[in-house]
Amino acid sequence: MQVLKFGGSSVANATNMNKVVEITLNALSNDKTILVASAIGGATDALIAIGRLAEAGNPAYTDKLAELEARHLQIVGELLPHYFQEDITAEVKERFRELANICQGVSCIRELTPRTLDLIMSFGELLSTRILAAKFTSMGISCKWIDSRTIIRTKQEAQQNVVDLEALNVAAEEAFSNTRTKLHVVPGFIASDSEGRTTTLGRGGSDYTASLLAAAISARRLEIWTDVCGMMTADPRIVPEAKTIENISYRAALELSHFGAKVVYPPTIQPVVSKAIPIMVKNTFDPHGKGTLIEQNPPESASTVKGISSIGHLALLSMEGSGMVGIPGYSSRFFQVLSQQGINIILITQASSVHTMLVAIEEKDSDLAKRAVDEFFAYEISLGKLEPLKVEKGYSIISLVGDDMKFQSGVSGRMFEALGNKGITIRAIAQGSSERNVSAVVRSEDCNDAVSAIHEEFFSEALQKLNVFIAGYGNVGKELINVIAENGEGMNVVGICTTRGELMERSGIALADIPAAFAAMENLPRTHRINDFVERAMALHLPNSIFVDCTSDLAIATLYPTILSAGISVVTCNKIANSLDMNLYRQVRSCAREGKASFYYDTNVGAALPVIRTLNQMISSGDTIERIDALVSGTLNYIFSEYCKPSCGETFAAIVKKAKQMGYSEPDPRTDLGGIDVLRKALILARETGASVEAEDVLREEFLPEECREGDVESFFRALERNEPYFAKLREDAAAKGGKIRYLAVIENNTVSIGLKCITAEHPFFSYEGTDSAVSISTRFYPYPVVIKGAGAGARITAGGVYGNICLCRK
Question: Which residue from 247, 513, 600, 685 has the fewest beta carbons nearer than 10 Å?
């Protein structure tokens, strides 16, 4: 025989009850079954509220009763065939008349005793199981409803209802043995005392009912059906990537439950644990999905670590004093005071010097605890042997749980390192004597980050999911989305932002929806704040978060330190942060180290060409950079290679205009001809070699005549035409030397210069034409320079380089 228990969400409405029926029918094909059910979702709370309203003499309780009755009648109408509704409808109405009479009595005497409240609450389970039993009967299933109050008897011990196990075993034997009935439906949560008065089993009462019955009949197994897929490696609301724990021992499951996992409540499953009856926890709404099998000896797995749980809203009580040293009895008296006040201790830790002791309790009990302890130890406090009890609120406990962790070295170290890497301060540490859990106390505001960090350390997949936030949806941003769509396995675009608006979805944005979403924002004003986008990204606390800057925005570049300090990696094609001033340059790198985050910017020079990476590898290998020549403006290279061709019959102005028409230059070509972009790239290259240089330190040779720098774009082109003799002479002077004009950056001896250079046949760039970029690096190891050449611009190429840098952020 087997026992199936269904919680309130599983029987909340007719649709859910049909799922329960389907699951039960499948179970019946394997074995006789006892079905234990809770009240319909929310009914118990509603019944308590009805009782309290009646006690207060508030007539609103009658409206609440009517609402609850209507819910039950609606379920009957939707669940059962029309021809089978009459009897159960009449029974539901009769039950509510009985309940109304009880509440009327409570209202008249203005008193709600615990016994009467138990009776009121019992109607929830009585009604839900009667409806379920009627459904099975309507289907021709051999089904019997049994009132659990006739089987489970309680007695009062220490003002609590305690189950009479001997009476239970006898009653269960009579009720379930030697019967041909395949299905018994039993209400959970409720019992009766020796005089037949209704009692309840407290928190987790329906689980307790199922566990008691399973133990009493020595069931093959107990199945607990709820609204989650078993026990998880972490709370999926905190860690969406949390996985189902498929096998776990009783003790590890109890540890997880003690420290916050709500799937099973430890006291309620104790009866089946004592009889080594397996417990299967499954999801009513995903019956074919994974579940958790809790048993005495689960199969061995590669990792002994099973899961992470947490408890919030805790206060820490610190008892300190020199009088505690070497004097026995302080601890027991401290615990005695808390016990007398009904305060539960969740965690204990004590200094080896015995000078201090710290315990964690629920925050709501902290004021009571302080008053009681200070009063109890008033004499010792007055003598200075003890300090008044110190109370610290706003803490949470994070627990890493597993089996035989004492046999797996380094578990605690990895846990604490994961917290340290996220900059999370640990207030206290404790380890269970069973060595099935390691617990750390952290500030409540750090709790979610702590759980995520530990989960990432112990349960991350071989291919970690990267959570990407993108600033900018221009040419590069659009191409990056395309590249991710084509290649981005394990990459989750969580947010994307422009000055007109943003998209953000924790579980990931559907990439196909992005173009239409931003097209709809096209006419919005450019007032969206990137700071707000960054704050929202940081507030999500997602592991492996990466901020990608596809803009050329100064304001965004200045946010890098904040982003990196928060532990979010930055990938950028924006050159500003690396070429502005040295203070920002150093701050960015310092914050990356502080936040243990990555900072990649390979596309700052040469787009996807491996220029910066090659430089860094050379320096890391102990080489010394002696000289760099850089042809890093595709626009300028195109203009001067065309102009210097022997066959060129066009003016300099005509070639510049052609470059503009082909999209090679900015709308105002002076942006390119002024060398600003080359200046920034030269600064970045110089700084990568270790030079501490600012923009004003760069030797910049201006080649445009002054009149070409003034006026609008049309005036600029007219000025170029007028100055054609000047440009022609530059070309002719270079040709006379057997050379060509190119706009180069040169870095040598910590000096940076940019401008027009005459390069001859000996120079590695002499034959380079078109829009390609090239960088020549001469070093101590490579006196004959290493040359890197290729397409150094273009949205698709840059996006590819950015994507490559994102992939490097995988740890």
Answer: 513
End-to-end CA distance of the chain: 50
Residue whose tokens read 């929806």: 513
- The structure tokens 């006291």 sit at 267
Tokens representing residue 329 in the block = 């009895």
pLDDT at site 218: 94
Encode burial over 279-294: b for 16+ CB neighbours within 10 A, e otherwise.
bbbbbbbeeeeebbbb
Cα separation, 215 vs 166, whole angstroms: 12
Q: What is the pLDDT of residue 698?
A: 95
Question: Mean pLDDT: which of 58-72, 329-343, 633-647, 698-712 is highest?
Answer: 58-72
Contact partners, residue 181, CB within 8 Å, separation at least 6 = 32, 142, 143, 144
**568 is written with which tokens?**
């979010």
Task: Count Cβ atoms within 10 A of the Cβ of residue 228 and give its class: 0-12 exposed, 13-18 middle, 19 or more buried.
Answer: buried
How far is the C-alpha of 599 from the C-alpha of 644, rounded, in Å?
A: 40
Tokens linked to 213 = 């019955």
pLDDT band at residue 353 using 50, 70 and 90 as cut-offs: low
pLDDT digits (tens, 9 = 90+) for 284-294: 999 999 999 99
Residues 741/652, Cβ–Cβ less than 8 Å: no
Give, in order, the Cα–Cα distances in Å from 137 to each of 131, 140, 665, 687. 10, 5, 81, 82
- What the block records as the tokens of 475 is 């040419």
**Beta-sheet pairing, 772-779 with 190-193:** unpaired
Whole-number Å distance between alpha carbons of 80 and 74: 10
Which string of b and e fits 209-221 if b means at least 16 CB within 10 Å? bbbbbbbbbebeb
Identify the burial level of 491 via C-beta atoms within 10 angstroms of its C-beta, where 0-12 means exposed, 13-18 middle and 19 or more buried.
buried
CA distance 772 to 14: 68
pLDDT of 5 higher than 60: yes
The answer to whether 393 is a known catalytic residue is no
Instruction: Identify the active-site residue in 32, 135, 660, 681.
Output: 681
DSSP label at 659?
H
Q: At 529, list the tokens.
A: 């704040």
| CA nearest to 35, candidates 153, 137, 174, 158 | 137
- Least confident range from 11-15, 260-264, 639-643, 707-711: namely 260-264
Full strand arrangement of the beta sheet holding 491-498: 501-504, 491-498, 466-471, 545-549, 569-572, 599-600
Q: How many CA atoms lie within 13 A of 736 on its CB side?
A: 6
Q: What's the CA angle centered on 685, arms 804 and 794, to 5 degrees?
A: 45
- Dihedrals phi, psi of 149, to nearest 5 degrees: -70, -20
Coil, strand, or helix at residue 669? coil
Rounded CA-CA distance 139/135 in Å is 7
Judged against a pLDDT cut of 60, whether residue 386 lies above it is answered with: yes
Strand order from edge to edge, sheet including 699-700: 699-700, 751-759, 740-748, 625-631, 772-779, 786-791
Mean pLDDT of 492-512: 93
Label residue 406 by pLDDT band (50, 70, 90). Answer: low
Mean pLDDT of the chain: 91
Tell me the pLDDT band of 223, cut-offs 50, 70 and 90: very high
| Contact present, 182 and 141 (Cβ < 8 Å) | yes
pTM of the model: 0.65
> How many CA atoms are closer than 13 Å to the CA of 434, on its beta-carbon side?
11
